[in-house]
Automatic annotation (TrEMBL):
Coiled-coil region list: 96-130
Name of the molecule in the record: Uncharacterized protein
Keywords of the record: Coiled coil, Membrane, Transmembrane, Transmembrane helix
PANTHER family: MEMBRANE FUSION SUBUNIT OF EMRAB-TOLC MULTIDRUG EFFLUX PUMP (PTHR30386), TRANSPORT PROTEIN COMB (PTHR30386:SF26)
Chief site of localization: membrane
Family the entry assigns: Belongs to the membrane fusion protein (MFP) (TC 8.A.1) family.
Residues spanning the membrane: 20-45
Gene Ontology CC: membrane
Localization of this protein: Membrane
UniProt membrane topology term: Single-pass membrane protein
Length: 141
């Protein structure tokens, strides 16, 4: 009897693998190069990281209530939500037509009061002249 070794040729481990094509080799080299460059670039490059979490946000200073000196209808808003503003910055425009009317009335009242002052000073002048005339009459006679 003959053994099985005589009928079957010895096998190599490489015989069951298909041959590697040129494109597969270039693709593998390309992927290795890309990864070899991407890892150092990712270590050096700066990028923003966003993390979701729960927390309490408090202002750095004390809370302040923003309140207009006058009341009225808002005509235009100059700031956006969460925009930082400084002291003295205009936040909005309020319709001031009622204030303008009141201002005009007060200016008219001031002008009338000035005219009354002029009239009263003129009356004082006339009365002073009458007093002097009467005093001269009394002293002269």
């Amino acid at each position: 009897m003959t053994s099985n070794n005589d009928f079957l040729p010895p096998i190599q481990t490489d015989e069951f693998l298909p041959p590697i094509s040129r494109w597969t080799t270039f693709g593998g080299i390309f992927i290795l190069c890309v990864l070899g460059l991407a890892i150092p670039v990712a270590a050096v490059a700066k990028y923003k990281v966003t993390i979701k979490g729960q927390g309490v946000v408090r202002p750095s200073g004390e809370l302040r209530i923003v309140q207009a000196a006058t009341e009225g209808q808002i005509m235009q808003i100059y700031v956006k939500e969460n925009q930082v503003v400084k002291t003295g910055d205009a936040i909005a425009i309020i319709d001031d037509s009622r204030l303008q009317t009141k201002k005009n009335q007060l200016q008219t009242n001031i002008q009338q009061a000035k005219l009354q002052i002029v009239q009263i000073n003129a009356q004082i002048q006339i009365i002073d002249n009458q007093i002097r005339a009467e005093a001269d009459k009394i002293n002269g006679t």
